[in-house]
Amino acid sequence: xxxxxxxxxxxxxxxxxxxxxxxxxxxxxxxxxxxxxxxxxxxxxxxxxxxxxxxxxxxxxxxxxxxxxxxxxxxxxxxxxxxxxxxxxxxxxxxxxxxxxxxxxxxxxxxxxxxxxxxxxxxxxxxxxxxxxxxxxxxxxxxxxxxxxxxxxxxxxxxxxxxxxxxxxxxxxxxxxxxxxxxxxxxxxxxxxxxxxxxxxxxxxxxxxxxxxxxxxxxxxxxxxxxxxxxxxxxxxxxxxxxxxxxxxxxxxxxxxx
Length: 258
Hints:
By secondary structure, the protein is α/β, with parallel strands linked by helices.
């Protein structure tokens, strides 16, 4: 599942698993030290500098994802940290320490640097997870109203104080109810940078509400799409596409390919 577990994993568990009758044995949350430092307020240009204070603050974001998988979906979970060359031993140790205090194991993965050997620790952890009992459940009931489903995702997964629907969304809600689509699951379209709909609210924010500005039916796919904040429904692309640095010389040689 892509992006944070509040997006990809929630959709996989609440929509795909429900429709396909799947019941996962376990979940692996993949993170990086640099991403956790970003949630602690570190700018991209400073990712390579050790910053334990920011890392500890950013780990709160990771632990909320862990808690969602455990307490909302009832699944065993482990954390996999993809190691970057700039990660320090003290930073890795801090992630282990804080996750251990929360009761979740951490597997360090270095497949990029060591090949298959770098994934052995994670593979062993997954085997142990799958041997544990799970109590898989969903974040909301399909029989709930559209508003109740939105509210359940916002409160249980994002830890928001609730959902606000714009006048346009209220009008669309009434149309969906009249057309008999209220029994469908919800596909939330939200920024991947925050638990909230505001990409500037990093870490594990509190005291916010989710604004739904648009509700539309994807009848073929079988779900209702809820657009929140200023998010756009388009493929996740980088701010500066790699294509901008790709060129072909007069001799026909391609340049700028990673």
